[in-house]
Amino acid sequence: MGEPVVGEPSAGGSAVIETERLALRPLTPGQADAVVAGDRDGQPWAEGYPRGDDQDVARMFLGRPGGEPWFGPLQIVDRATGLVVGGIGFFGPPGDDGTVEFGYGVAKETEGRGYATEAVRALLRFAFDSGRVRRAVADTTHENAGSQRVLEKAGLRHVRSDERLRYYETDTAG
After folding, report:
1. pTM (2 decimals)?
2. Helix 29-37 with 52-63: angle, nearest 10 deg
3. Are 59 and 69 in contact, with CB atoms under 8 Å apart?
4. Which of 39, 110, 145, 172 lies 20 to 30 A from 120 at CA?
5. Tens digit of pLDDT for each residue in 19-32?
6. Per-residue pLDDT tens over the stretch 60-96
7. H or E element, residue 99
């Protein structure tokens, strides 16, 4: 797959991170309102989007206006169809040590197509290329083998586990 690039502003006015198949675009307040409401009317959403986690992220986003769009929630858009298939993003800008934490998910109906791995790789490449990120971390449940594979394919390594979660990290863009 080609290198992700930050493309020109979309119709909504914000730039996007583009990969071969995907566009990652910052969530806007209007989109967040629709996600929270689950209002599918007129929305370019794949079946199964938004998931409960997407709605939780949108609620948090609406409670914290402003900030840095690239270090907040992004929608994962299938460029071929224009449909939003999931969400990805950092839980805030890098800390003083250059660490960011991120999460992601795609609609169940689109799992198994490599979208999550492609989106994670693009997001990490963008973050490390910014010069502000030195380490990225993520976690997943023990039962979520699919998410574990995504993180490993994207170049993260399992560093520890506790009774609830498996923790991953990387200091490169994979």
Report:
1. 0.89
2. 140
3. no
4. 39
5. 999 999 999 999 99
6. 999 876 678 889 999 999 999 999 999 999 998 999 9
7. strand 99-106
